[in-house]
Amino acid sequence: MKSTIRAMYASFYNQMKVRLSLIRITLGLIAAIPNTAIWTWIAVQSGNRDLVTYIMFGSPLVAIWATAAFVLGWALGNEIDNQTYPFILLSRTSMLSVMMGRMLAEMVLAIPYGLLASSVVLVVSRQFPEIANYWTLIPSLILVVLELVVVSLILAPLVVLVQGRGGFFNAIISLGIALGGFVYPISRLPQALQVAARFLPMSWVMDSVWYSIRGGALNKILLSWGMSVLVAGCYLYISYAFMKFVEKRVRINGSIGI
Amino acid sequence: MKAFWALVNKTGQNFITQAIATYKGLFGWLSVWSFTSVAISAPILNMVVVTSVGSYAFSGEAMKNVAVGVSIGAMNYIIFGGITQSYAYERNLATAQMLFASPANRFLNYMSRSMLHLPNGLLCFAVSLTSAWLIVGLDFGPANWLGMILAAVITALTLTMFAQMLGVFSFITSDWSTYFNPVLNTIGILNGIVLPLVVFPKSIAEIARFVPMTNGVIAIRAAYKGSEMSGIAVPLLREFSNGLLYFLVGYIGFVIFERVAKRQGTLDLDEH
Description:
The structure holds 2 protein chains of 2 kinds. Chain A is mainly α. Chain A has helices at about 1-20, 20-45, 50-80, 85-90, 95-110, 110-125, 135-160, 170-180, 190-195, 200-215, 220-255. By secondary structure, chain B is an all-alpha fold. Chain B has one domain (about 1-270). Helices cover about 80% and strands about 0% of the residues of chain B. In chain B, helix 2 packs across helix 7, helix 3 (about 60-75) packs antiparallel against helix 7 (about 120-135) and helix 7 crosses helix 8. The N and C termini of chain B lie far apart (about 50 Å). Classes of the chains: A mainly alpha, B mainly alpha. At the A-B interface, helix 2 and helix 8 of A face helix 2, helix 4 and helix 9 of B.
């Protein structure tokens, strides 16, 4: 257990070191401003105060999802391309704990996006958010960030297994934004897409964000949390199985080229 | 006369060869999955997102107006991404040296780089417009189809010229992904697709007229509502003249970069 935590810390530190570039973070933040402003403007036009608050918390998740899917998605492929994957195979540390460390780093890096997006919403809407239940909102937000990174994790072995090339994540990122319910409640989608959305843990937990803002019943919030954790658990298990599969294929082939 | 036609023929062949080579060799999204992702799935999903969130604020004609704008905006991603990445890969895959060493006509070479990316933009527009028709029920009855097609082609042309201009920046920095989203999103807020220009202060609204697509969006919306060609001529001319301006700036940058790189003996200008 101690060695796993040490490995997670090392990969966390490594990920932070790689990703902490002032210019990249600044440009990433700049990129998040226009879309947040547009969504907020739409919400203000609707006169729906709850929607403005929902977008305040949801819009940074779009930027976090896009970055996490892209960065974590290429993580394993980059290890193979840069010839650092053999070190992971030589080590007794599980690949999943290395990826978990990276995942945590992505969560920490998400904080500035959240702060910036909230400020943009405040400036554009000129209104303070009204939240019915802070005590359920905060855990919901932590859960949704955790879950969108868990979903990103599955992409890392997937891109290696299907030999994905540049642009591989474009549809996946768009699909996550459409079905994740970050900027509108899932109930707004056509019926067929609502069913599809339920295969993403974020769609469940975003329900609890909506209920927390509007003052929904606690049992509904707990149900959303439970379902989201269940679906996220499935993703985590599939990620683990995929990573083992990649490792097995590499060991059987005896070469890094998959 | 015979020699003249031989030269024209050879020039044309070179142009086509360069267009195909830069497209096939330097466009990283040219696999079935990646291309389908960008050209088919992304425009449809983007339309779903915009109409879902937009349905809170817009209904009826206002929603259709936004959807038509979003359709033409769908060209953005594939044209910007495709062209800027091809310039960055020209550096990263070390093929720029081949170009600099060859006597190939630089003007034609510069032109050839966007030729095959332009139809991609039009494909995205067609996919997005079809999804808008299915989702919000666009009514094409009164539409001026010739005007719509003309607006789409001129806007795509302007976008390619703008992407070429940014591409030169990618060529110099050998990077495209860092500034791709900030530029794309900044244009997205100023081009009037969702936010009407009247919400901005006058000075910013005027600056927005120099942003690629802004005039194209005005033209295509007017054409969709059935405006005559005379009604869309002014925004289209403005869109086209913006394109020419981007082309000129980009081409000058392309030529200057080569000269400076040759004089310094390195492509990494930032180190000197």
